[in-house]
Amino acid sequence: MHRSPARPRVRAAGMAALAALALALAIPAPGLAADKPAPLTAEAAGVKKAIEQKFPGAEVRGVVKTPYFGLFEVQFDDRIVYTDAKAKYIVVGAVYDTETKVNLTEERQRKLNRVDVASLPLDLAIKKVKGTGERTLVVFSDADCPFCHKLEEELKGVDNVTIYTFLYPIDSLHPDAARKSRMIWCAPDRQKAWDAFFATGALPDNKGDCDNPVAKTAELGAKFKVNATPTLVFADGSIVPGALPAARLESELKTAEAEAKKLAAARKS
């Protein structure tokens, strides 16, 4: 996948981690549809208070005790860090389960940082219905991103899904992608123009000067911290970056649809 330019030096990794923590402590989370945080235990409440005292102004979205190392999971913005009971030390990084081979931190972040799919302005996206269209997939895509081209190939093997594609050119990487996106949007049949461009590179015959959503989708992606293309949003609101292979897409779609139904039932109860 293509990411926006970041700090290039490996030697700066430690500083980058600290910078990420600083950002996490400073920026409130916009428009996320995270799971409701579990009620704080007395111990977790103490950790929350200690963190807030050490980082004045920080919004702590949740604190829960983990089953490993006696650490507490603390959620700032859309990030997770770990700390001890006295909040003396903070660990920035991922926890892996060596038996299941699961990135536990990533799995938790996906659940905590869900997007409210119902709130997305889908009228600003190119809509494509395949088969019954009973499943939902939202994609942030850059016309000149090679990984987006790869995703389009993989999507040919996925059926019974409605795909909403937000045109999301990353100007710093692909300076001509915004122009192409506008031309595709201004075509009489946007979906046909999108498919034709990815199949042959052909662009519709227009100047791309119609009313188009490219600037708005850039703002939308920034709101949800989309910094790589393609970025996928599934029915349950979980966000996954990258050109997933068709088999993985099927697995993610199945899991997300089931989870979305559970979330809907929980909201009604």
Q: How would a textbook summarize the main sheet?
A: 5 strands, mixed
Give the number of DSSP strands: 13
Helix content: 25-40%
Helix/strand order: EHHEEEEEEHEEHEHHHEEEH
Strand order of the largest sheet: 8-10-9-12-13
Number of domains: 2
**How many distinct helices?**
8
Mean pLDDT: 85
Structural class: alpha+beta
Distance between the termini: 39 Å
Radius of gyration: 20 Å
Strand content bin: 15-25%
Shape: elongated
Q: Short summary of the structure?
A:
This protein is an alpha+beta fold and 269 residues long. 37% of the residues lie in helices and 19% in strands.
Characterize the structure shown.
The chain is α+β, with helices and mostly antiparallel strands and 269 residues long. It folds into two domains: 2-112, Disulphide bond isomerase, DsbC/G, N-terminal (Nuclear Transport Factor 2, Chain: A, Roll), CATH 3.10.450; 117-268, 3-Layer(aba) Sandwich (Glutaredoxin). 37% of the residues lie in helices and 19% in strands. The protein contains eight helices and 13 strands. It has helices at 13-26, 42-54, 104-112, 146-155, 177-185, 190-200, 214-223, 246-268; strands at 2-3, 60-65, 72-76, 79-83, 90-91, 96-97, 102-103, 126-130, 135-141, 161-167, 228-229, 231-234, 239-241. The chain has a five-stranded mixed β-sheet. The two termini are 39 Å apart.
